[in-house]
């Protein structure tokens, strides 16, 4: 593939990022995947990300170790209980305790550094502004602001030789639309992991926000849900 088709893709091993990877590969991008082991309680997603990266034959798969437990502030990196069985209204108002402070800013910064080394112009991130739990770093205005900053902060952006584009093709899709897209692309969702509070073997709790949104997405898309729930 030509050099200008290089891309860095943030791969969590979840439903959205796996769909994103399948889409990027279909569009001809030479993908360099990046996954973070950041102190999250759901470490089984790292195994899922490895499996997905192998399935899609990415150019390389970098697993970055950073410990966001240093700061705390989230149920995903601490001992606070993960909220379960929240109503639709609760999931669409306010910022929940599962929000990890500045996580996407940190992840995108690593991806930006990797892209600059690779001379890649594209960074893919599977953020979504419709079916999500109120995270401030999943909104279109956040991504637009980050992209502007990225092109002020890198050699390629300043010199105009490799301006960066943050690609978010799933941004305005519902979870059902994402499932439908992934099904069209042949994604095996059985290898993905979305749960915020899974069992040690990766079995999903079925009650956290992520599980509820995932389950509903399959139901509304009319696609069988291959997730193993408790």
What can you tell me about this protein's structure?
This protein is α/β, with parallel strands linked by helices. The chain has one domain (3-221): Rossmann fold (3-Layer(aba) Sandwich). The chain is 37% helix and 11% strand. The protein is built from eight helices and five strands; from the N terminus they run βαβαβααβααβαα. It has a five-stranded parallel sheet, with helices on both faces. It starts with 5 loop residues before the first strand and ends in a 9-residue tail after the last helix. The model has no long low-confidence stretch (mean pLDDT 93).
Sum this structure up briefly.
This protein has 230 residues and is of the alpha/beta class.
Strand elements, count: 5
Q: Which range best describes the helical content: under 10%, 10-25%, 25-40%, 40-55%, 55-70% or over 70%?
A: 25-40%
CATH superfamily: HUPs
Classified by CATH, the class is Alpha Beta
CATH structural fold name: Rossmann fold
CATH architecture: 3-Layer(aba) Sandwich
Sequence of secondary-structure elements: EHEHEHHEHHEHH
- Tell me the number of helical segments per DSSP (H or I, 4 or more residues long): 8
Mean pLDDT across all residues, rounded? 93
End-to-end Cα distance, whole Å, is 43 Å
Radius of gyration equals 17 Å
Major sheet size, sense and barrel closure: 5 strands, parallel
Percentage beta strand: 5-15%
Taken from the alpha-carbon principal axes, the silhouette is: globular
* Sequence of strands across the biggest β-sheet: 3-2-1-4-5
Ranges where pLDDT stays below 50 over 5 or more residues in a row are none
Please state the structural category: alpha/beta
């Amino acid at each position: 593939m030509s050099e200008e088709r290089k891309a860095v893709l943030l791969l969590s091993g979840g439903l959205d990022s796996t769909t994103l990877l399948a889409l990027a590969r279909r569009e001809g991008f030479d993908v360099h995947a990046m996954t973070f082991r950041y102190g999250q309680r759901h470490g089984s997603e790292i195994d899922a990300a490895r499996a997905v990266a192998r399935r899609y034959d990415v150019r390389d798969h970098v697993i970055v170790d950073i410990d966001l437990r240093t700061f705390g502030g989230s149920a995903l990196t601490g001992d606070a209980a993960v909220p379960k069985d929240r109503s639709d209204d609760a999931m669409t108002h306010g910022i929940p305790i599962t929000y990890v402070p500045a996580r996407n800013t940190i992840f995108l910064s690593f991806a930006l550094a990797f892209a600059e080394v690779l001379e890649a112009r594209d960074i893919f991130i599977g953020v979504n502004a419709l079916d999500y739990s109120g995270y401030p770093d999943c909104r279109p205005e956040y991504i637009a602001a980050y992209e502007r900053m990225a092109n002020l902060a890198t050699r390629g952006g300043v010199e105009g030789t490799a301006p960066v584009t943050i690609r978010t093709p799933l941004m305005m899709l519902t979870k059902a639309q994402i499932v439908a897209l992934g099904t069209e692309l042949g994604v095996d969702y059985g290898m993905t992991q979305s749960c915020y509070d899974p069992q040690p073997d990766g079995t999903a709790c079925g009650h956290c926000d992520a599980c509820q949104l995932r389950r509903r997405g399959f139901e509304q898309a009319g696609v069988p849900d291959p997730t193993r729930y408790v």
